[in-house]
């Protein structure tokens, strides 16, 4: 926040709210990925689970262009 030249002051609550929003984002993404892993009868979260969560969830559409495609069918990821 302080890296922007036009920002001179930041309210004390802003970093706390931003940190909580990041926490909630990571929690939701992890939960969706875990759901995909369980559907595939696995107990470990892999990259392709996160990719699937991003692809299948509308709220993560902004990440579709930056995710690395996975080779889900070959057991890699």
From TrEMBL:
Official protein name in the record: Transcription factor CBF/NF-Y/archaeal histone domain-containing protein
InterPro entries noted in UniProt: CBFA_NFYB_domain, Histone-fold, Transcr_DNA_Rep_Reg
Origin organism lineage: Eukaryota, Viridiplantae, Streptophyta, Embryophyta, Tracheophyta
Top-level lineage group: Eukaryota
Residues covered by the Transcription factor CBF/NF-Y/archaeal histone domain: 1-54
Pfam families attached to this UniProt entry: CBFD_NFYB_HMF
Entries under Gene3D superfamilies matching the protein: Histone, subunit A
Record key words, sorted: Nucleus
Entry GO terms, CC: nucleus
Subcellular location: Nucleus
Organism: Dendrobium thyrsiflorum (Pinecone-like raceme dendrobium)
């Amino acid at each position: 926040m302080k890296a922007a030249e036009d920002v001179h002051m930041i309210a004390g609550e802003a970093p706390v709210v931003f940190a909580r929003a990041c926490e909630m984002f990571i929690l939701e993404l992890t939960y969706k990925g875990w759901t995909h892993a369980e559907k595939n009868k696995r107990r470990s979260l892999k990259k392709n689970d996160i990719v699937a969560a991003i692809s299948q969830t509308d709220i993560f559409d902004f990440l579709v262009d930056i995710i690395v495609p996975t080779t889900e069918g070959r057991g890699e990821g």
